[in-house]
Amino acid sequence: MEAIHIPQLVRAPEQTEAIEVQTYLPDLKTLTLVQGMMEVAHRGNYLEVSAQAETIMTLTCDRCLQQYNQRIKVEVSELIWLQESPEEAIEEDVEREIAYEDLVESLHPQGHFHPDEWLYQQFCLEIPQRQLCSQDCQGILTGESSSPANNPPVDRRWASLEAFKDQLL
Question: InterPro entries under this entry (predicted)?
Answer without folding.
Answer: YceD (IPR003772)
